Amino acid sequence: MTVYDQLMAHERQTQLLASVAERLGWDQETMMPPGAADQRGDEMAALELVLHARRTDPQIGEWLAAVKPEGAEQAAQLGHVRHSYERAVKVPARLAEELARICSTAQGVWAKARAEQDVAAFLPVLKQVLALKREEAACYADSGHDLYDGLLDGFEPGETGAGLAAMFDRMRPRLVALRGAILDKPAPKGLTGHFPKDKQLALSRELAQAFGYDFNFGRLDLAVHPFMSGQGADVRITTRVDESDPFNCIYSTIHEVGHAMYEGSVSPALRMTPAGRGVSMGVHESQSRIFENQLGRSPAFADWLFGRMRDTFGEAGAAEATAFARAVNRVRTGYIRTEADEIHYNLHVMLRFDLERALIKGDLEVADLEAAWNDRYQADFGQAVDKPSNGMLQDVHWSAGLFGYFPTYTLGNVYAGCLHKALRAELPDLDAQMAAGDMKAATGWLRDKVQVHGGLFTPRGVIEQAAGHAPDEGPLLDYLEAKFGALYGL
Amino acid sequence: MTVYDQLMAHERQTQLLASVAERLGWDQETMMPPGAADQRGDEMAALELVLHARRTDPQIGEWLAAVKPEGAEQAAQLGHVRHSYERAVKVPARLAEELARICSTAQGVWAKARAEQDVAAFLPVLKQVLALKREEAACYADSGHDLYDGLLDGFEPGETGAGLAAMFDRMRPRLVALRGAILDKPAPKGLTGHFPKDKQLALSRELAQAFGYDFNFGRLDLAVHPFMSGQGADVRITTRVDESDPFNCIYSTIHEVGHAMYEGSVSPALRMTPAGRGVSMGVHESQSRIFENQLGRSPAFADWLFGRMRDTFGEAGAAEATAFARAVNRVRTGYIRTEADEIHYNLHVMLRFDLERALIKGDLEVADLEAAWNDRYQADFGQAVDKPSNGMLQDVHWSAGLFGYFPTYTLGNVYAGCLHKALRAELPDLDAQMAAGDMKAATGWLRDKVQVHGGLFTPRGVIEQAAGHAPDEGPLLDYLEAKFGALYGL
User: Fold this and answer.
1) According to the annotation, is A259 in a ligand binding site?
2) pLDDT tens, A291-323?
3) I want to staple A300 with a disulfide (CB 3.0 to 4.6 A). Which of A435, A488, B406, B466 is the partner?
4) Disruptive mutation site among A29, A234, A266, A271 for chain B (greatest number of B CBs within 10 Å)
5) Of the candidates A89, A87, A92, A227, which has an alpha carbon nearest to the alpha carbon of residue A157?
């Protein structure tokens, strides 16, 4: 066995065990009886201990020092191993353990504080999490490196906080102008009616299949917060149901199908290798977003969906197709990121990005976070936060230690904009296909241009190859202005 | 940390990882999408490799040599560790791997051969399995030890093939005489009617709870072959549904609840220790059998169930309670072990026990197995096997390498007989309670006398303590003669 083969054999076993851990996580959110939570915590911790030992095994360092890669694919594989190994060994075991422990506690404290609208109860543990995350960031921050960038690098290798900030600054004026023009127009109506759970789930299964999802390699279940879990031949999705708002279920499903198609479409030859998964959070989100928004919320697809809704529910919640498409694309000022329309969503992300960057840099204290959030929300959204669960307590991320994650959502939107523009250029009949519920050409294009490559290229690299140019925010903004301009008669 | 504490810490992590493996197994049989089977095989193999390394870690041998147990509980814990470690290290890694591989293949070959009634297709791989199992048995067979006993010891420590054979020889005449007397009487009717799946499952959930099952620590799902999976705070059961025969669903559920109550009722202080689980297959089966048969098929409980069936289905499948109790306890000659009544079941087990013992000893060749099975079935059951799936291809056990497992089913019945006699003596109102659907006193007695102890005592030891005498087959046979004598007017 060559050094490369030995290293890959080690990585394969690690990936398989990580896949087991992911499956346990799925079980926890979908199937696990509530009384098993503590035992599951112990089981997960035992498995994480095994994974941590494998990921920081000094033998990896020796293999990396000795290995001679042959060709681009081996170089890409080794790049992932090196990135992961170097990050893992920089963090002392004591710090990694403490972080895992505090973040587990913090999520429980956060959930209770959110339910009770009690910011003060959350701040002490958030302060602990932040202190440990800053310590972790310092481990990555080799000479002159920004603390925030060290954390961001865990989710989106190659990006910097400064680079994203500059892009967000360029995006903001056009988003704000578009939002203003829309809000000056009469608000479109939402759907009315009752949409039974079983029918929503049956329709969601059909939509998942229309977007290419194969139930031979996955399943659809209910979860409090929809998510996708798995890789390769076992990619499972979840959704949720609100019987007065079928879009919640439908668009959560389509979104998670985008993630699942990415993980399931990576070339089989790459499965259980370091390059065998989606390459970054941003590119992952580009797939879920383009499925959900650029395709799923397009007027052409909405037209087809209108018919399927009438077939399914005996009504579609709107009197005619145009009103339905407007309901699908309703723009409203709101408190909650996960319920936001395509325009406001990015403003929600920018708010969080600026605040978490300031926290990590040390420019903002935890004690001042609520005031900072509320001031910023007032400034950006033109209304006051009415309660903490609609403000700084709404997201789980910070309690889970996920600083550096938020900006990847908007980066995903930007990437989706680039991919959508290229897709439109190459598929001139796309609207006609979508109006017939036929998504095969669009999902096939994404599979062949992006998904199949897994981690063989950098995040920006894979988008650049697919789009034909270095990614930038222009196509997303052009798309939003064109689509909402037409829908709202701007 | 003392040597004992170090050893227990190691064992705890191993148990937690074994619990993860068991959860994956549950997922595989209930939730996993079919296309994920190969990937799951790789995931399980990766986890088994970790478990095997932990179980054969030479450090365990050093700890065992150095440890000084204090008190009976520590001695019991160390007994389990020593038993498991010594068995594990006696088998060369090469043989363990080969067995895992061949048995995995053999189960697929068996399933196909059974579906196609093709014995010849199964024999070559069964021959390979048998050769490896005999090799494995030889590893355990220290001076003068019987080959079969080495395998049996993996399921039922303390038992020998000769001891079980002698007990089965004592049981056979009374079972045969009772069966003959019953078959001379007019056959009782089975249920008639249609019993919708959803209602069967709802009733089964209610019955599970009546037998003490707490859905806060478990769940009920469908599986092709019902099973229980888990331990401690997460014990899940499965059942299956036949819309013309509700007993299939109902009694599978009650049976699996017996297993689940055992695993879930082990003292919390013992969880994730070597003594934290059911102590043997025989004692496990005693719990599932007493739940299913001595309690669940008692005329008193059947009386209550008759009423619940009428409430649930609008009919109970029988005109009145006595006919219903006879249907619950219908005795019929049949081919299939898992569908057999309480009397025939043991004759099915004895047939398999004698054949597998002869195979392992070298007294019977695989090539002659089908003829031996068919001759024996004709002699014991008075009819000819009509097709291999009703004969030697019906059970998965041998293809899975589970030689030595079958006799624990009848041993479980014998133990259940002893426990039931003691239970009746201590709970004089049991019939009145069961006729009201109140199982609390009975299940509480089993919990306190048997289940809570986990592996603190030997299998025979825990039965002896609960029953007040060394276990023997008498109480089971007395119970069968009394119950069926009354039902059939013998």
Assistant:
1) yes
2) 999 999 999 999 999 999 999 999 889 989 999
3) A435
4) A234
5) A87
